[in-house]
């Protein structure tokens, strides 16, 4: 006999309706079987594969989620398949299949599901399901899974949408992937856009996404991972607009705290009738002894991908950097099939080892260019650790500026855990270029393809943002970098007005040498709890600026205190930013400076849930807003008061789900959940 029978009877009495809302991340919830009067402990079914395809058009979104669960126990299990649904939209079609066979299902409203949720939580003595509070839930009952066997469940449906204000906040819940506890062997989300209007900004603040722009109205977003824990729902922010330069701005402001904003500066869409000017490119590959085998392979691959993007009237050369700098040719050569084949052979056969003479490699590369009539570009792929000759970063940058007579732009690809990302970044910035650091979290080809899209001449340069009715703090980056390719430049800042304010914001920039200007009005509210990741990413950028200051000027107590305070406020790990650290310093610094995924820098001591951050303490998880001077209401875990609070405020369900002992601060006051009755 299985314990979920009572819940199945209760669910059977509830009328099933068609769902409304986005979905993914179904939960396979099983209860411990009772054999001969003895309850047997079970391991939750793990997820072997989780694949979600989302197709977005102008008027509808279609979802298809495939999950394969595995029963790693020595006996069969029976349970429920639960998939959360966001209320408020209309579903057009739906199909649910188990192992390819269409099966009946029901959809239970949030109100009707709450008693079932309480029953399930009490039966298992586990709050993990409470994140479903306040949501409609699709239910498949019962689901049987044999010992050491797997079961696949597919949910597919389509719902109508209305895209307001030329923006879309897409959320794919991943409750099931979190609930399974273990790593997901194969995880993938694909979002395909087929729109009638151009997509301007596409950004995920939750996962590292590869973005493939097929046309102004067509885009594919892909997230993949293998054998990794899934903690956060997938989020995607997309903006739409016309053909010209555009400015969009979003805010986040918790109650009684400073606000943060995120501004997108989008370039004009390319004119298909206008031809891009032909360019000269010099590639520099670091083949010194400090480059690991994998890093060297990636550097070679990055250069070969760059060669593949060259056009017949472009010119190029390749240098290898070590103790000495070796040239493929003494001068720039045209792009021909024979020359590209020769370049690939040169890249693959050049000797490895020795020191790194970054200074002379850059100066030799600059000597290749002789005219300003063609855009000149230098691409450096390596770890940026200069060890031979002139190694002072300040001197290298000074001399590069002095001898850069043709205005060549320098772009750098930092590779390896020990890469000097600061050096690579500063060298690129000194020559109006940009830098990337490959951390292994994204698809390498997608990262490099986006990198090369950005080395074309700037779409918008000399950018200025003027806030005409408010005075923002800590605008980052400053100055604002040029817009290249079709990706937007993202600007962050803080504001601290004492009431809701509507402010005009003016964007000015040069397009093809002519100054263009647009002015828009945006709201800077006193409270805005949507998009909490905006404040987190601003904090990441601020910490990167402070750590950069320490690298240049040395440890300063005031700067260290600022870093520590921000890290504690937002739950970041910053210990390896110390100058004495070696391996993780570059990777962490680069994540703080460039990543849009706060999870990249979060500490294991903290847990981000919605707009709240919890710190792990001996008393369980404690809201970082909690202060010792506060007097909390103490509530026993699974007590009558515990569930009364949940009924009154279903929105706190995700907070309660993180553990049986939680201290959280609500508008009504602090609450402390303890494992036993007070």
Shape: globular
Q: What fraction of the residues are assigned to beta strands by DSSP?
A: 35-45%
Detail the poorly predicted runs. 1-10, 12-22
Q: In total, how many beta strands?
A: 37
Distance between the termini: 35 Å
Which structural class matches the secondary elements?
Answer: alpha+beta
Write out the strand line-up for the largest beta sheet, numbering strands in chain order: 8-7-11-5-4-13-16-15
Largest sheet: 8 strands, mixed
The third-level CATH topology of the largest domain is: Immunoglobulin-like
CATH class of the largest domain: Mainly Beta
Mean pLDDT: 88
Q: What is the CATH architecture term of the largest domain? A: Sandwich
Number of domains: 5
Radius of gyration: 28 Å
Helix tally equals 14
Q: Considering DSSP H and I runs of 4 or more, what fraction of the residues is helical? A: 10-25%
């Amino acid at each position: 006999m299985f314990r979920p029978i009572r819940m199945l009877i209760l669910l059977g009495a509830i009328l099933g309706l068609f769902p409304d809302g986005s979905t993914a991340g179904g939960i396979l919830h099983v209860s411990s079987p009772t054999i001969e009067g003895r309850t047997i402990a079970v391991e939750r079914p793990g997820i072997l594969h989780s694949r979600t395809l989302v197709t977005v058009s102008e008027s509808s979104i279609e979802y298809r989620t495939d999950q394969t669960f595995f029963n790693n126990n020595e006996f069969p299990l029976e349970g429920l398949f639960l998939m959360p649904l966001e209320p408020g939209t209309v579903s057009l079609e739906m199909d649910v299949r188990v192992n390819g066979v269409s099966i009946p299902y029901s959809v239970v409203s949030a109100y009707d599901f709450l008693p079932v949720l309480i029953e399930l939580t009490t039966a298992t003595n586990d709050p993990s399901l409470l994140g479903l509070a306040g949501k409609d839930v699709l239910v498949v009952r019962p689901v049987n899974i044999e010992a050491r066997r797997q079961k696949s469940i597919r949910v597919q449906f389509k719902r109508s949408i209305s895209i307001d204000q030329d923006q879309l906040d897409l959320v794919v819940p991943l409750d099931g992937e979190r609930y399974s506890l273990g790593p997901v062997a194969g995880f993938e989300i694909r979002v395909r856009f087929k729109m009638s209007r151009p997509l301007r900004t596409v950004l995920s603040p939750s996962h590292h996404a590869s973005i493939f722009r097929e046309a102004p109205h067509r885009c594919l977003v892909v997230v993949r991972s293998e054998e990794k824990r899934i903690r956060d729902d997938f989020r995607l922010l997309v903006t739409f607009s016309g053909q010209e330069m555009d400015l969009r701005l979003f805010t986040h402001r918790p109650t009684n705290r400073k606000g943060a904003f995120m501004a997108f500066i989008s370039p004009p869409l390319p004119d298909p009738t206008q031809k891009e000017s032909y360019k000269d490119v010099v590639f520099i590959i670091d083949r010194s002894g400090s480059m690991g085998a994998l890093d060297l392979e990636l550097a070679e691959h990055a250069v070969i991908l760059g060669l593949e993007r060259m056009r017949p009237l472009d010119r190029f050369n390749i240098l290898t950097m070590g103790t000495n700098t070796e040239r493929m040719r003494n001068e720039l050569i045209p792009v021909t099939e024979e020359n590209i084949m020769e370049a690939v052979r040169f890249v693959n056969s050049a000797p490895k080892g020795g020191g790194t003479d970054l200074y002379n490699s850059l100066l030799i590369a600059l000597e290749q260019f002789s005219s300003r009539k063609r855009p000149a570009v230098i691409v450096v792929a390596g770890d940026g650790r200069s060890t031979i000759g002139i190694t002072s970063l300040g001197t290298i940058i000074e001399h590069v500026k002095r001898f850069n007579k043709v205005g060549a732009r320098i772009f750098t690809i930092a590779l390896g855990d020990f890469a000097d990302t600061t050096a690579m970044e500063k060298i690129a910035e000194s020559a109006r270029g940009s830098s990337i650091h490959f951390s292994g979290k994204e698809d390498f080809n997608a990262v490099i393809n986006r990198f090369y899209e950005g080395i074309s001449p700037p779409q918008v340069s000399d950018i200025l943002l003027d806030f005409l009715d408010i005075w923002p703090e800590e605008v980052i980056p400053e100055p604002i970098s040029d817009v290249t390719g079709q990706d937007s430049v993202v600007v962050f800042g803080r504001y601290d007005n004492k009431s809701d304010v509507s402010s005009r914001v003016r964007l000015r920039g040069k397009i093809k040498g002519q100054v263009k200007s647009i002015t828009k009005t945006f709201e800077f509210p006193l409270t805005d709890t949507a998009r909490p990741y905006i404040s987190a990413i601003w904090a990441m950028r601020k910490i990167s600026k402070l750590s950069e200051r320490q690298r240049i000027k040395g440890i300063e107590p005031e700067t260290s205190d600022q870093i520590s305070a921000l890290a504690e406020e937002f739950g970041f790990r910053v210990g390896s930013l110390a100058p004495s650290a070696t391996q993780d310093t570059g990777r962490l610094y680069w994540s703080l400076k460039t990543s849009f995924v706060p999870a990249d820098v979060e500490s294991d001591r903290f847990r981000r849930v919605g707009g709240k951050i919890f710190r792990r303490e001996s008393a369980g998880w404690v809201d970082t807003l909690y202060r010792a001077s506060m007097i909390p209401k103490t509530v026993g875990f699974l007590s009558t008061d515990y569930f009364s609070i949940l009924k009154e405020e279903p929105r706190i369900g995700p907070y309660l789900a993180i553990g049986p002992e939680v201290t959280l601060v609500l508008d009504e006051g602090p609450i402390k959940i303890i494992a036993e009755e007070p």
